[in-house]
């Protein structure tokens, strides 16, 4: 307590000497009213006696002043933070900000998908390359095996040829010990070979002759079939022609008879009209029913 200042007068002077707060800064009303009440009590003689009589009241005033100064400092800090904060956003700014955030998220997702697709493509390319390499290796192994088999078969063929040659030499050497060796492939005489060839030629000639005879016979049968068919067609056409001519003749006869009857009827009608007009007898030969003029009787 001895180290503290003398009284609240000096504290009040310091508080009055402090500059006023700018507009927009916040000051708690309860804290301000408490500090002002304490200062007013400290400035009165009654308050001074109370402060001198009890050090606890002075400590209370000091604590209130310190709290008031702390409130002032906190209000200054809050006002400075509000001044440094960005201005409020409008509705269009908010919409644009939300759209930008959504676009950023969409772009990030697309980048992730592209990365995954690229990784999948790389994996697929690696798989394809490995499969192609394996196929090429398999084809190479197959070609090598085929080449080895071919070489083995060729060696076997050459070995068989050489073994046959050796066997033939041994056979000739063994045969030459008893008689003159035969160096022909068939081991038969030339006369027998000529005879076999002659018989073979005769057999071929006989077969060709048989084929020629067969082809001629088939051709003759085909020609006979065509001739028979043509003759049958001619007979059928003659029959049809005769039949059609008979039908046409009958038609013409009927047509002539009909025309004669029509002519007779017309003549009778004309004669009747003439008799009526002239007043002649109706029982004349020209007027009898069924009578026909002499000039028209030969038409039947």
UniProtKB/TrEMBL annotation:
Stretches with biased composition (Polar residues): 119-129
Domain of life from the UniProt record: Eukaryota
Composition skew (Basic and acidic residues), residue ranges: 131-147
Disordered: region residues: 18-91, 117-147, 279-300
Comp. bias intervals (Low complexity): 18-29, 53-85
Protein name, per record: Uncharacterized protein
Organism this protein belongs to: Alexandrium catenella (Red tide dinoflagellate)
